[in-house]
């Protein structure tokens, strides 16, 4: 039995790339529970889970030929599923009810708009005070659609395991800038200033 004939993930990927439907079916059979588990962590309904899974399998079909590390396929599937779950939840939260009785008039007033604009300007100015490393990291982390940590790691030359801790440090630095700290204190009564 050659390496491409065994049942390992790299062998299955190689066979699926070559058009072997049985290999593709086996990939789906092996990894469908992983996709369902990720969807369950996001508390998706069965219908939403099916939609997310279909989208993830489509993404795999589109990118099967570009996967450089076939052994990492389970991680790729988990990350892609998580991103699709988050995208679905973001889209759902943006939907506006069509029944006029359910609509609450929460349109911002001129004062609300002015406060929001002032905060946005303060945030933009505070962002420029961060180190280049923090600005690049935060910019990549908050792109739409979300970028996988593995891509960010490659772009910044930073270990994947270091991205989360660095993000936390950068956000804490941003929160403590002279422009942002007072805004946070105003929004959280009883919070002491440092």
Automatic annotation (TrEMBL):
Coiled-coil features, chain-numbered ranges: none
| UniProt entry tagged with the keyword Acetylation | no
Cite the InterPro entries for this sequence: RNA_pol_sigma-70-like (IPR039425), RNA_pol_sigma-70_dom (IPR014284), RNA_pol_sigma70_r2 (IPR007627), RNA_pol_sigma_r2 (IPR013325), RNA_pol_sigma_r3/r4-like (IPR013324), WH-like_DNA-bd_sf (IPR036388)
Query: MF terms per GO, please?
Result: DNA binding; sigma factor activity
Q: Which residues form the RNA polymerase sigma-70 region domain?
A: 28-94
Keywords of the record: DNA-binding, Sigma factor, Transcription, Transcription regulation
Q: Which Pfam family is an annotated match for this chain, by its short name?
A: Sigma70_r2
**BP terms from Gene Ontology:** DNA-templated transcription initiation
**Family as reported in the entry's similarity comment:** Belongs to the sigma-70 factor family. ECF subfamily.
PANTHER family in alphabetical order: RNA POLYMERASE ECF-TYPE SIGMA FACTO, RNA POLYMERASE SIGMA FACTOR HI_1459-RELATED
Protein's recorded name: RNA polymerase sigma factor (Sigma-70 family)
């Amino acid at each position: 039995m050659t390496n491409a004939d065994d049942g390992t993930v790299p062998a299955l990927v190689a066979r699926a790339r070559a058009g072997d439907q049985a290999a593709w079916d086996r990939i789906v059979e092996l990894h469908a529970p992983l996709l369902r588990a990720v969807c369950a962590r996001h508390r998706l309904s069965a219908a939403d889970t099916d939609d997310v899974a279909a989208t993830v399998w489509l993404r795999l079909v589109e990118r099967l030929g570009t996967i450089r590390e076939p052994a990492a396929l389970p991680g790729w599937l988990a990350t892609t599923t998580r991103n699709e779950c988050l995208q679905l939840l973001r889209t759902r939260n943006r939907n506006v009810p069509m029944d006029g009785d359910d609509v609450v008039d929460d349109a911002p007033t001129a004062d609300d708009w002015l406060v929001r604009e002032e905060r946005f300007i303060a945030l933009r100015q505070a962002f420029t005070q961060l180190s280049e490393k923090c600005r690049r990291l935060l910019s990549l982390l908050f792109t739409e659609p979300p970028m996988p940590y593995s891509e960010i790691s490659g772009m910044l030359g930073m270990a994947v395991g270091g991205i989360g801790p660095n993000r936390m440090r950068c956000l804490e630095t941003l929160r403590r800038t002279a422009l942002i700290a007072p805004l946070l204190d105003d929004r959280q009564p009883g919070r002491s200033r440092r």
